[in-house]
Amino acid sequence: MAEPVLAVDRLEKAFGALKATNGVSLDLRPGEIHALIGPNGAGKSTLINQIAGALAPDAGTIRFLGRDVTALSTAARARLGLARTFQVSSLLPDFSALRNIMLAAQARQGSSLRFLRPVLSDRTLTEPAMAILARVGLTARADVPAAELSHGERRQLEIAVALAMQPKAFLLDEPMAGMGPEGSKTLTAFLDGLRQEAPILLVEHDMDAVFALADRVSVLVYGQVIASGSVAEIRSDPEVRRAYLGDAA
Ligand SMILES: Nc1ncnc2c1ncn2[C@@H]1O[C@H](COP(=O)(O)OP(=O)(O)OP(=O)(O)O)[C@@H](O)[C@H]1O
Question: Which residues form the ABC transporter domain (predicted)?
């Protein structure tokens, strides 16, 4: 079996008496979409925050591309190629879609903001950013400030920003949230192709998307992985149906 790109081993995180992450182990292998599902408050965001480096675990390790990154900052992990999108938008609202992407590309190269203005007239720099916009279907919206994009377009742009980091793995936190049925369909098709570029750890409540996309599903309940397996295995698991899926299975 291929070496995992990302491996989480016995991770623990408590908030007071609450064990939000209670001995979680999971991995992400090349080319796959691994969905992380579970009820509200199960600890999905807490887990993603630890993997991304925004929250320090109390115990356990996180390995990325074969190296222990548990003590590294968010920025250091991002530079290694760990790209993350948020439940709440992290876009710069006054900047155009194109500028948001170029900023991400520049951040990756370690350049400072003050170099942005000249590069906007440099086609060798704008063209790759336009190519990414095209991939997410936002070519016509390149010059529109992020704040003026529709909800669905902003979600697309967030993924485009992550793509500009040329990631080795994606952490996507509820990318379908707030999308209408058409938007969800478009985004599902896009994510389907994205896994070839880099594997995706996908936190998602939209079960249609999860069932359509996931190579593997792990179910988190009260900070613990209660089941992990293929979509078919998870859908037919009585404990998962009881704890989370119910009629959605
Ligand atoms: N900073 C914090 N301080 C105290 N408790 C927290 C903190 N962050 C999260 N929690 C608690 O930890 C538990 C896990 O929360 P988390 O947001 O990780 O769940 P989730 O599975 O992402 O939920 P949702 O699906 O609603 O996003 C919850 O009980 C939450 O109230």
Answer: 6-247
Q: Ligand 1 atom closest to Cα of 87?
A: 27
Rounded average pLDDT over 152-165: 87
- The three-point CA angle 164-165-169 to 5° equals 115
Residue 40 Cβ < 6 Å to ligand 1: yes
Residue 121 has pLDDT above 90, yes or no: no
Residue in the structure block whose two tokens are 């049925």 = 181
Q: What predicted TM-score, i.e. pTM, was given to this entire model? A: 0.88
- Decide which of 165, 192, 226 is a domain's last residue: 165
56 lines ligand 1 (CB under 6 A): no
Instruction: For 46-94, give the secondary structure using H, E and C.
Output: HHHHHHHCCCCCCEEEEEECCEECCCCCHHHHHHHCEEEECCCCCCCCC
Distance 45 CA to ligand 1 centre (A): 7
* In a shared domain, residues 121 and 173: no
Task: Give yes or no: residues 69 and 173 share one domain.
Answer: yes
Q: Is 234 helix (H, G, I), strand (E, B) or coil?
A: helix
Tell me the pLDDT band of 103, cut-offs 50, 70 and 90.
confident
- The verdict on ipTM greater than 0.90 is yes
